[in-house]
Amino acid sequence: MSPITVTIENIFKDHLTLIQVVLYAGVISILWFAEVFSSLNPWKDKLRHSGLNFLFIFTALPIQLSLTLMVIVISEWAFTNHWGILFLLPYSSSIWVKYVAGFFLLDFFEYVYHVTMHKVKSLWKFHLVHHTDTQLDVSTTVREHPGETFIRVCFLGLWVFLSGASIGLLVLRQTVQTFSNIIAHTHFRLPSKTDKILGLLLITPNLHQVHHHDKMPYTDCNYGDVLSIWDRLFGTYKEMEAADINFGLDVFDNKHASHFSYLLQSPFPKKNSTTG
Ligand SMILES: [Zn+2]
Ligand SMILES: [Zn+2]
Predict the structure, then answer these.
(1) How far is CA 273 from CA 4, 133, 252, 268, in A?
(2) CA–centroid distance, residue 22 to ligand 2 (Å)
């Protein structure tokens, strides 16, 4: 490739991670302040709560940055060798197959990933940390154990290998996913009618809040990442009134929910006495 060949795809490829970080930081900051100004709770409480969640950015970032390079290498290899499910589909070179079918396929894989994190006990111990937040807000988006960050990006590498997703598709997917995940964790709720319409296709804040309810079977519902259609298809779709939702996990002692070091150690057997 000529060094003077500059395309949008190349720019995104070279700065994929940086763009994601900037996008993440920008959208989270805007919505965080929107939550502050729309809430009656003291902003100092929110700052304390968000501060703990934002600490997880520092543990996630080095893992995310280094492993994203691996995902890019897999994508380039698959693209060069015409490898993956997307290349097996009819009209595989059409933009609809490349981007639209690819988007749906990757979203289905993310649904499988989320179900796997809940159903496999050894993986649930890492994902559980995300669910221990008792005050769901936009900062909960980044509350992810570094072990889960590692597992999540490794799974993404597997999904890219299986699908043959191009860098362009990954950029599109990650951008939409970033907005969707952040908005889904805000404390805002959509009016019922709007939620019903958008919820036919998308995971709305109302739907993701049900996923953060502290009791089964609600914790094991609405696994969707961007799209809600997989939950509808596989019978894991649930709705719940805001007044009935209690954030957190009833199998976790809430007194540890704001202790960063405890949360980091919680998946490991020696220090873990209250989760399972
Ligand atoms: Zn979950
Ligand atoms: Zn969540």
Answers:
(1) 58, 19, 10, 10
(2) 21
